[in-house]
Design goal:
Oligomer: single chain
Radius of gyration: 24 Å
Shape: elongated
Region (Disordered): 1-30
Order of helices and strands: HHHHHHHHHHEHHE
Distance between the termini: 88 Å
Biased composition (Low complexity): 1-11
Organism: Streptomyces roseoverticillatus
Strand content: under 5%
Pfam families: TetR_C_16, TetR_N
Structural class: mainly alpha
DNA-binding region: 50-69
Number of helices: 12
Length: 215
């Protein structure tokens, strides 16, 4: 037997998935997984997205997705928190001025987030997933309640602050759904300044009422 043949016979053939390169699980893997998850949920929605597809998009083993983020509902929560981050700045908007323009500031801010093409598509993906799947809806509801509504309520010096913040949010979400998701005309094509002018007084009443002021 030749040396070459001996070497070939003495080295067992590797089976299964080839070893990943350092780029698969090295520095930046967590960030790549989150980016791939955001893209997958945006493209396919919560129901059709899969851990395997996310792993493929990030060029990692599916086990690494579980290692960093756990099951699908947990990586969905991480993904939508990133996508929803611009809306979480609403608390600072409330603090930025006096009580008389509170409704206008918040209305302009929320509609501005939807008007921005860079954030609109991600928000649309979140809403579609939440409408179609109860698990996704529960995750989104918890995020909105704990990270947005509670913060806004904490800035209000008014009776029933939590209820006020939720009613204001319901008004703004309803406008956003009709304008950007369902695209009901003429609301969908109306100038955003006209929409702000019509919606802001109602949001002002919901949030501030009589004599209510931000803390």
């Amino acid at each position: 037997m030749t040396a070459a043949a001996s070497g070939s016979a003495g080295t067992p053939r590797r089976r299964g998935r080839p070893a990943r390169t350092d780029t698969g699980s090295g520095p930046g893997a967590r960030e790549r997984i989150l980016a791939a998850a955001r893209a997958e949920f945006a493209a396919r929605g919560y129901d059709r997205a899969s851990i395997r597809a996310i792993a493929k998009g990030a060029d990692v083993d599916p086990a690494l997705v579980h290692h960093y983020y756990g099951p699908k509902e947990q990586i969905f929560a991480a993904a939508i928190e990133t996508d929803f981050a611009p809306a979480l700045e609403a608390q600072e908007v409330i603090r930025a001025g006096g009580p008389d323009t509170l409704g206008e500031r918040l209305t302009r801010f929320i509609l501005g987030v939807w008007e921005d093409p860079a954030t609109r598509e991600q928000l649309l993906a979140i809403v579609r997933s939440a409408v179609a799947n109860e698990t996704a809806a529960a995750i989104f509801r918890d995020l909105v309640t704990s990270r947005l509504m509670t913060r806004i309520a904490g800035e209000l010096d008014a009776p029933d602050a939590k209820l006020r913040s939720e009613v204001a949010a319901a008004h703004l979400v309803g406008v956003a759904m009709l304008r950007y998701v369902i695209k009901v005309e003429p609301l969908a094509s109306a100038d955003v300044e006209q929409v702000v002018a019509m919606v802001a007084p109602a949001v002002q009443r919901h949030l501030a009422g009589d004599g209510a002021q931000p803390t």
